[in-house]
Specification:
The protein is an alpha/beta fold. 39% of the residues lie in helices and 18% in strands. The protein is built from 16 helices and 16 strands. The strands form three sheets. Strands 1, 2, 3, 4, 5, 14, 15 and 16 form an eight-stranded mixed sheet that branches. Strands 9-10-11-12-13 form a five-stranded parallel sheet, sandwiched between helices. Strands 6-7-8 form a three-stranded parallel sheet, sandwiched between helices. Strand 7, helix 6 and strand 8 form a beta-alpha-beta unit. Helix 1 packs across helix 3 and helix 14 crosses helix 15. The longest helix is centred in the N-terminal third of the chain and has 26 residues. It is globular, with a radius of gyration of 23 Å. Bound molecules: arginine. The site of arginine has 14 residues, from helix 12 and helix 13.
Length: 466
Amino acid sequence: MVLQSSSQTLCAAKLSRHPAHARASGRCNHCVSKGGDRMKKWILAAGAAFMSITSAQAVTVVTADRMLDVTSGRYVDHPAILIGDDGRIRQVGNIASMQLPAGTKHIDLPGETLLPGLIDMHVHLNSLAEIGGYQGLKYTDAFWASVGPYNALKTIDAGFTTVRNVGSPDFDDVGLQQAIDGGWVVGPRIIPATYLLGATGGHCDDTNGLPPSIGDKQSPGIVTSPDQAREKVRWVHKYGAEVIKICATGGVFSLGDAVGAQQLDYDEMKAIADEAHMLGLKVAAHAHGDEGIRTAILAGIDTIEHASLASDATIQLAKQHGTWFDMDIYNDDYILATGTANGTEQQSLDKERMVGLKQRQTFQKAVRARVKMIFGTDAGVYPHGDNGKQFAKMVQWGMTPLQAIQAATLNASEALGRSDVGVLEPGRYGDIVAVRGDPLQNVALLEHVDAVVKGGKLVKGPGATQ
Ligand code: ARG
């Protein structure tokens, strides 16, 4: 057994030194050939006992006063969540009746209520709210990559342990994901979209608002036909995109386009959706205007971002198709209050005045119609770390606190197509946040989380070292 233990450690080390090889084959050939068949049988036979000895080293148990079961909406008193050395939950139960392996680390959070780590489905970790309009042109390209770790830390400290980063230049979000996953940077799990795909002169065209002599260098995400759209999906996927983000209509912050106007046609959106789905990726469509939202739903897009001007008929269509709405209803307040100081162009402020209130009214109607809803803030347009402020807005505009919490946990994991985050149950990552009080009575408690655990490691809270 001891021999086997060291052999397994060696294999693990080899795998981590050859990530590409390990990923391709799913195992380390050296370890297998050295073992042979008899050895493999022996390993299996010894399996259970062996696991309990080795795994004890990095097992963690998290305890608190109570835990919100986001699926049932009920509280569980005195929960104990046992998390293995792979960062995944092994058991959720009561500490008195739990068999704890020797050496188990205990994170005790007395007086606290536990919830699953929160998920923000719409962030831009390589953007800063404070730098608006043309101000961004003063900064060199690598600046945006450099601010990523700072924003990632603020985000996880706010309790968001998973984020979908729906657009960043230069594959910066993939780089940040690699740095976080490798342990060099502290931050949330990232689902990167990389470059945004969209029409020339549209919301996703980064050179909008510049003269042709400067702006004619085309943004890498521009698509001009269904064929090119397919090719761009393949290209961003090749370099790390795990979700595809498109711009189906004009936007608030893009210069020179009309906020509601459709910008990709049905064939382009359908080509993108089909190609992405073939590759196993979901598609998020930025869409404020009704016609663009409708077309995106019919084309098979998975999540509609903003959804500001969706008509009643389009709300029904979303419901029929099971399309998710991801509505950033907090940031209107921030944009209008700070826009001028941040350098936001007047045309963007005017556009915001056209959609802000309407978006909230649409949100209310969509909630009433029981459209599937997820939690996305567009942090980057407003300050990273303030993500939790949207919960209270969602309740103010028609959700129950439980619905708002489910949007950021259970629903978000479903919309991501991931069964490893969003719920505190065995098999999923041990991503946990703790608040003092009752978030079902006062959802604003989620604006200030006391502790954050990611994959069984304490990131924020008493005794955190990161
Ligand atoms: N990124 C979005 C855009 O530029 C932000 C919209 C913010 N406004 C709002 N009411 N949600 O269009």
